[in-house]
Design goal:
This protein is mainly alpha-helical. It is 72% helix and 2% strand.
Length: 520
């Protein structure tokens, strides 16, 4: 089954080339793009079943064995990320097709959008299967180049401004990552992740810490870990709704994935775990406080995105199999739910002409379907039982309690508080946008609207637009997927637990890459 591993990278890459050639045939281009991602979903599903039942898969590119050749590695963690990412990429693509058919291609010009979207998918999948730091860097750069194009689609002033900020921050992160790779290669003579792990203890402790910190800073920027998350709330909300949804769902999680690999394989020691726990605490608290202060729904969701990255970093920082398992489950949950909420925000904007709760009202009567599509994932993100958000947080709290330190117990309390504040912020949106009558919007005064701020350069209310059924159907399908995470939480958490146990130390990953022995 190793022949399936490179397909997750090759198919979207070849699809991007085909979509570019078919630029003057938008209908065929859409079919090609949807078809390619549909196949990737199927291939990823097969890989997950095979890896979970029969063990990890390693593809030696060109027949050259590690450490001299490039290896693509699919273990349980990578397989889970491939499946959920492929599902989200396909769903958002279909959503954007519906938007394009309804509004024309001003927001997502087909000739540019579809090839770039597939390039983004190529970068995401490459990052998940890379067995060495350089190809992980290549995956990051592929998705970042594509994201530069997607975030500035339409060429409006706010998007160009946000795109410039995003590009500058991403370039700084990439330079740090590249410098880290150069230093690791200079010190150890390899960029293969498994071989780095074998040789890392040969370096002095202070050199190890420097390399560790540099990688964490580079990955922390990409994952939007506080205080390296300042760029995100200003960048994501300006993009078209489908782009914002896929960015929010996936891009930061690629950074979290890289942190998991770094902390469990390259630097498995506990030296920086307390510092990571403090960063997790600050990320959760500062992010949710930013969300509570927002009037714009997309900007509010961007702050909750930052906040909930803190839960994932908490699981990694615990340094235990239980913590890593909970973090993996929470990543899968958050990718689906956060994407769904941004898609629902896109529907709200079409129906109400704005995403500001100061300008919205009466949407429950106008569109009860959209009300439900926002309400269900909002409860899920807020951690209400029995949704997957509650299950993921409970698993994280249990893993923290097992560690038993004072800092771990502080994080349990902070995590519970952040969950309540997240629920408050989202229910305020539902109350103002859906429950409040439309006639009461003008001059409406409420304590719920005190001390909230509009987004910088907030746009005026736009004319309402009809919502194509395909956009509503895709959002509903994502809500169903989020509910499926709850219904099938047992099997999903079992897979996450097995993945976490595999990552408890570097030996499992090393044995995958060097099955004949640890030849360093």
């Amino acid at each position: 089954m190793t022949y399936l591993v490179p397909l997750v990278v090759l198919l979207p890459l070849l699809g991007a080339a085909a979509a570019l050639i078919l630029g003057k045939q938008p209908g065929v281009q859409r079919i090609v793009t949807i078809g390619v991602l549909s196949i990737v979903v199927a291939v990823s599903g097969v890989l997950l079943v095979v890896v979970d039942s029969s063990g990890p898969l390693v593809m030696e590119v060109g027949g050259w064995a590690a450490p001299f050749g490039i290896v693509l590695v699919v273990d349980r963690l990578a397989a889970l990320m491939l499946v959920i990412s492929a599902i989200v990429l396909l769903a958002v693509l279909v959503f954007s097709v519906g938007q394009g058919l309804a509004d024309g291609d001003n927001e997502t010009p087909v000739s540019i959008y579809h090839p770039t979207y597939l390039i983004l998918a190529t970068g995401v999948f490459t990052a998940f299967v890379a067995g060495d730091l350089f190809n992980l860097y290549v995956g990051f750069e592929i998705l970042l180049v594509a994201s530069y194009v997607l975030i500035t689609l339409g060429g409006t002033e706010p998007r160009i401004r946000a795109g410039v900020t995003y590009i500058v921050v991403s370039l700084v992160s990439s330079l740090l990552f590249l410098a880290s790779i150069a230093m690791i290669y200079g010190a150890l003579g390899t960029v293969n992740i498994a071989q780095i792990s074998l040789r890392m203890n040969d370096l002095p402790v202070d050199v190890q810490i420097i390399l560790h910190v540099m990688l964490l800073v580079a990955f922390g920027i990409k994952a939007a870990v506080f205080p390296l998350s300042f760029w995100l709330p200003d960048s994501y909300p300006t993009a078209p709704a489908p782009v914002t949804a896929v960015f929010a769902g996936l891009l930061t999680k690629v950074g979290v994935y890289a942190i998991i690999r770094a902390e469990t394989v390259i630097f498995p020691g506990p030296e920086l775990n307390p510092a990571l726990m403090v960063l997790a605490l600050l990320t959760m608290v500062i992010g949710v406080l930013g969300a509570v202060a927002q009037a714009d729904i997309k900007r509010l969701l961007s702050f909750t995105l930052v906040s909930h990255i803190g839960y994932m970093i908490l699981g990694v920082a615990l340094g235990t199999a239980a913590g890593t398992s909970a973090a993996i489950f929470y990543i899968v949950h958050h990718i689906v739910v956060q994407t769904t909420l941004f898609l629902a925000a896109g529907l709200i904007e079409r129906q109400g002409g704005s995403t500001s709760i100061n300008k919205l009202g009466g949407l429950l009567a106008a569109s009860p379907v959209i009300a439900v599509l926002f309400f269900v994932p909002a409860l899920n993100l807020g951690g209400i039982p029995p949704f997957s958000g509650f299950i993921g947080k409970l698993a994280l709290f249990e893993a923290s309690a097992q560690q038993g330190t004072v800092l771990a117990h502080i994080l349990i309390g902070a995590g519970a508080l952040v969950s309540l504040l997240t629920l408050y912020a989202l229910m305020r949106v539902w109350n103002m946008a859906f429950w409040r009558p439309a006639d009461d919007v003008e001059g409406y005064e409420s304590t719920l609207l005190k001390n909230v701020s509009e987004a910088p350069n907030a746009a005026a209310t736009q004319p309402t637009r009809t919502t194509p059924r395909i956009m509503t159907a895709v959002t509903a399908a994502m809500v169903v997927v989020s509910l499926a995470l709850t219904v099938f939480a047992g099997p999903l958490f079992a897979v996450s637990s097995r993945a976490g146990e595999n990552l408890e130390g570097p030996s499992y990953y090393i044995d995958i890459v060097f099955p004949g022995g640890r030849d360093d």
